[in-house]
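Researcher: I'd like a candidate sequence for this fold, 139 residues long. If you have to choose between options at a position, lean toward the conservative one.
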């Protein structure tokens, strides 16, 4: 998942629920560091933890006419280590959204980068979608 490292990814959908256009500070986001650290916000509180990615073994290269030159798609299992968070309170709506983000990060998820989006699918088949934040917001 080299394409996610060093960038901030903002949730546009969490567990199948699209996020509204509320205040920017209320949007959950994750930044993946190359050293296996992840940090960001659940929408209310700051969070920090670890991440690891196990690429699917049967994926060797992209399909299509230029497949020999294309990188292998990043599809596999993304696992987050224990997350620590600050302990601030927010509106009930924002706290529920943050709980959904933390629940997602508590279990391994299927992950892939498709059409510029980081797509995470939980064990129940619910999709969470993240898009790259503007460059000035990425580390």
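Model: Candidate sequence:
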């Amino acid at each position: 998942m080299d394409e996610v490292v060093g960038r901030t990814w903002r949730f546009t959908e969490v567990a199948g629920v699209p996020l509204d256009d509320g205040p920017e500070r209320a949007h959950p986001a994750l930044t993946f560091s190359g050293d296996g650290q992840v940090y960001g916000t659940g929408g209310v509180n700051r969070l920090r933890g670890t991440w690891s990615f196990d690429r699917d073994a049967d994926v060797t290269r992209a399909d299509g006419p230029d497949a020999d030159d294309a990188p292998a798609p990043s599809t596999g299992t993304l696992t987050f280590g224990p997350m620590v968070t600050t302990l601030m309170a927010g509106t009930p709506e924002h706290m529920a959204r943050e709980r959904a983000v933390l629940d997602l990060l508590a279990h391994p998820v299927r992950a892939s980068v498709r059409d510029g989006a980081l797509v995470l699918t939980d064990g129940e088949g619910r999709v969470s979608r993240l898009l790259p934040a503007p460059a000035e917001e990425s580390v």
